[in-house]
Write a structure and sequence with these properties.
By secondary structure, this protein is of the alpha+beta class. It has three domains: about 1-95, Beta-Lactamase (2-Layer Sandwich), CATH 3.30.450.20; about 100-285, GAF domain (Beta-Lactamase); about 295-340 and about 350-375, no CATH class. Helix content is about 35%, strand content about 25%. It is built from ten helices and 14 strands. Strand 11 (about 320) and strand 12 form a beta hairpin. Helix 4 (about 100-125) runs antiparallel to helix 5 (about 130-145), helix 4 (about 100-125) packs parallel to helix 9 (about 255-285) and helix 5 runs antiparallel to helix 9 (about 255-285). The protein is elongated, with a radius of gyration of 37 Å. The termini are far apart.
């Protein structure tokens, strides 16, 4: 492509015409008015600096507009055209369309960030044993390692029929507060992204340029720099227990390959939730009856032994069994001589012997230790 000193096109090859969708009628048109996006006003100054022989203007990159309004990114190598008397009469530029190359580079960088998040989450679920810590750290990793503007985890409260945000992370505190209103409840917003992802148990993607789901993009989100949102269900035991929402500042980044990795990420979080729930259930059943909810034999004996040890070692007041096996109140008495004493019949004091169960759980320990030597009952 060649331009005169006024920036009008004097020559262009077929490649530029095919790229931009124009024909030969472009010759004579102003390059900056017809091919340069309006916000790139500084390119005219760049062109003037090029005519002034400034060497830093020989190579540059900028977007151009096609006839249909599409934007393409070109890399330019510029040279000056001189007249016979040595005056500059224009420029000659060779452009290379690097749009797809730049998109590929950006996508590779984004995939690397997703892999970093996936690695961080996998490391997290190996060591974490607390549900709140899992949610909090997963959101933090998504923002810190994944480069997302915000991330949120919501869990379904079946009693209140609401999607409750349990963890939020991001760079904008004001926008994080607005998220709590956006993901308010399933009942009040049946068409919301979170509700749709939980109901259908599939990822939902919405971008500022439009979506396949017909969902509007929030004005407040767009004003805050959010360009795309992906909501991924957290499926535990074939039921959607919640969702992971990721807010990105780039357009068109949630493609099929990316969504596959992010779905795997959500699956890892759901697996950790399932593991924590099962561990909590096992911990509960170790001490409580699963049918009645009452303390089982193991917990009862453990608590009785704890009170007995406390009473025998001079701890606080507690309960100890008497000779008939009935639990009686044990009260500390003053011991000026340093010995533990209890009231004796007749008004004196005697040093009580420490209470220990008889071997085999026979007489002397009552019904509370009968059969204790057999160990906990099998189930």
């Amino acid at each position: 492509m060649m331009l005169d000193r006024a920036g009008r096109i004097t020559h262009c090859n077929d490649y530029l015409l095919r790229l931009t969708g124009w024909r030969d009628e472009v010759v004579g048109k102003d390059w900056f008015d017809n091919f340069v996006p309006p916000e790139l006003e500084g390119l005219r100054e760049h062109f003037a600096a090029l005519l002034a022989h400034q060497p830093d203007t020989l190579h540059h990159e900028n977007e151009i507009l096609t006839r249909s309004g599409e934007r393409r990114l070109d890399r330019w190598n510029n040279t000056l055209l001189f007249a016979a008397d040595g005056d500059v009469i224009g420029t000659a530029s060779i452009g290379e369309d690097i749009t797809e190359r730049r998109k590929a580079s950006a996508r590779i960088a984004y995939l690397n960030r997703v892999y970093a998040v996936l690695s961080g989450i996998n490391t997290l679920i190996v060591r974490v044993r607390d549900r709140d810590e899992l949610f909090r750290e997963a959101c933090r990793i998504a923002v810190a390692a994944g480069g997302f503007l915000m991330s949120a985890i919501v869990m379904v409260d079946h009693r209140a029929m609401k999607a409750v945000p349990v963890a939020l992370a991001g760079r904008d505190g004001e926008l994080l507060n607005a998220l709590r209103e956006i993901i308010a409840s399933i009942e009040d917003a049946p068409t919301a992204m979170v509700a749709l992802a939980i109901r259908d148990k599939r990822p939902v993607v919405v971008s500022a340029s439009g979506s396949d789901n017909g969902m509007p993009f929030g004005r407040k989100l767009a004003e805050s720099g959010v360009c795309a949102i992906a909501v991924l269900p957290l499926v535990v035991a074939n039921e959607a227990a919640g969702a992971l929402a990721l807010y990105a500042g780039e357009q068109e980044i949630f493609h099929a390959e990316e969504l596959k990795l992010l779905s795997e990420l959500a699956g890892d979080i759901a697996l950790a939730i399932d593991h924590i729930e099962k561990q909590e259930k096992l911990d509960y059943l170790a001490y409580y009856d699963g049918l009645t909810g009452l303390a089982n034999r193991s917990l009862f004996l453990e608590r009785v032994a704890l009170h007995v040890r406390s009473a025998s070692s001079g701890g606080p007041d507690g309960l100890v069994p008497d000779r008939s096996g009935t639990l009686q109140e044990y009260q500390r008495q003053p011991r000026p001589s340093g010995r533990r004493r209890t009231p004796a019949a007749g008004g004196g004091v005697v040093a009580p012997k420490p209470w220990r169960p008889q071997s085999g759980g026979a007489a002397g320990c009552g019904p509370f230790c009968r059969g204790a030597a057999r160990g906990p009952p099998g189930r």
